[in-house]
Amino acid sequence: MTVDRAVVIVGAGEAGVAAASAIRESGDHRRIVLISEEPHLPYERPPLSKEALTDETPALKTIRPAPWFKEQFIDLRLGWRVQFIDAARRSLVLETGGRADELFYDQLLLATGARVRTLTDAPTGVCYLRTHEDSVALRSRLSQAQRLLVIGGGVIGLEVASSARHMGKEVVVLDMAPRLMARALAPDVSNVITELHRDGGVDIRLNAGSIDLRQTPQGMRAILGDGTVYDGDLVAAGIGVIPNTELAAQAGCALENGILVDEAGQTSVPGIYAAGDAAAFPHPVFDRHVRVEAWQHARRHGAHVGRAMVGTPAPYSEVPWFWTDQHGVNVQVAGLAADCDRTLWRGAGPARTAFHFSGNRLVAATTLNNGRDMRPVTNLIAAGWQGDPQALLDASTPLGKLAARLLAEHTAATAAA
Length: 417
Ligand SMILES: Cc1cc2nc3c(=O)[nH]c(=O)nc-3n(C[C@H](O)[C@H](O)[C@H](O)COP(=O)(O)OP(=O)(O)OC[C@H]3O[C@@H](n4cnc5c(N)ncnc54)[C@H](O)[C@@H]3O)c2cc1C
Prior knowledge:
Elements: E1 7-10, H1 14-25, E2 32-36, H2 51-54, H3 66-71, E3 74-78, E4 81-86, E5 91-96, E6 99-104, E7 107-110, E8 114-116, H4 132-144, E9 147-151, H5 155-166, E10 170-174, H6 187-199, E11 202-205, E12 211-216, E13 219-224, E14 229-232, E15 234-237, E16 241-243, H7 246-250, E17 259-260, E18 272-274, E19 279-283, E20 288-290, H8 295-309, E21 321-326, E22 329-335, E23 342-346, E24 352-358, E25 361-368, H9 374-382, H10 399-416
Parallel strand pairs: 1-2, 1-7, 2-3, 7-18, 9-10, 9-15, 10-11, 17-19
Antiparallel strand pairs: 4-5, 5-6, 8-16, 12-13, 13-14, 19-20, 21-22, 22-25, 23-24, 24-25
Helix pairs in contact: 1-8, 9-10
The site of flavin-adenine dinucleotide (FAD) has 35 residues, from helix 1, strand 2, strand 4, helix 8 and strand 21.
């Protein structure tokens, strides 16, 4: 089948769907073909490690209801995998169940997301978590298990640990790193999260060294570098993701920690764009290319690139933001916390906020059960605010008010310089 002047989007996750929606909202009437190798209506991934494991009757949370795609004249191809791109002919080949098809595109968006990194030399039966099927399988196997070994103390591993405790399971988390969520959190916050899990009954083992996993007649055994043995009847691994860049590479797009794009989401190959978890984009606030693996970013970057594809480019300066829920605590992080060299806390109770500085510059913030601080502190990070860190700690003034004043002073000082 041939489609002329079509916009073709590969990947119907948050980024792909948001791009399709933004293209339609802009009044562009070209044909949109949205291709997903997954068989389901596009769905949200965050519940997969939370409610989908713990709720009595979990339901797939779709990004848009089925009729929406028809109403928007979006040709949704579920269960089709794009195998090959011919950038010179502006065409691609897709396959489903032994059938192949070729589409011609005017513009192509690669919203191919990421896939789980897997353990090398591990016995079969280790659970991973990226898709609806993964979540259904993990839920079913957890229901039969007593003791879960989680390999990897990142967001997904810790959410699974928290959900498993909620289900009454014994849980051990093993991580080679010296602290939890080391890529995403500042060291002080990692310590708080470690305490949170220990208080929640999770056995946390950091600095685990190499982990040798073996199948035993009773289940699974993890042998650490120092010889310590942990037995469990189920292993779930959350050791990060790998961006799906193979199609982009095959089409000739430049790669660097993902598919390299400019501020409009354009790759190095004319007519091909990328967005979401798969794309590394230039961030004006952090002054380098970053690749963000988070729900809000995928939606906003997808929509941004969709708008840029129809000719309304604008700078993309969204401060990265993600949330995670563990043991009933809502954690939100804005900015790049791994960039910080010091952390200061505002408040000391269960609801508090951490500011992360690199020198005197605010580069990130974390809220614990204190999401209302997120908007004002994100505005400061976006503005590149720097100054006396103590100015943010005056708990007698609401942060919104304080941040508005500091922002106004910062803007005036920047304008005068
Ligand atoms: C279990 C889990 C929990 C999470 N929880 C949180 C959270 O609490 N907070 C938060 O901020 N973020 C969370 N995230 C991250 C967030 O969900 C992702 O960052 C976001 O969904 C990425 O969207 P995307 O559209 O870029 O990619 P994806 O959602 O990965 O979508 C890409 C799609 O492209 C498809 N595809 C790839 N190649 C092809 C091809 N060749 N042909 C056809 N289709 C293809 C893939 O199969 C996939 O369906 C979580 C993620 C997971 C897995």
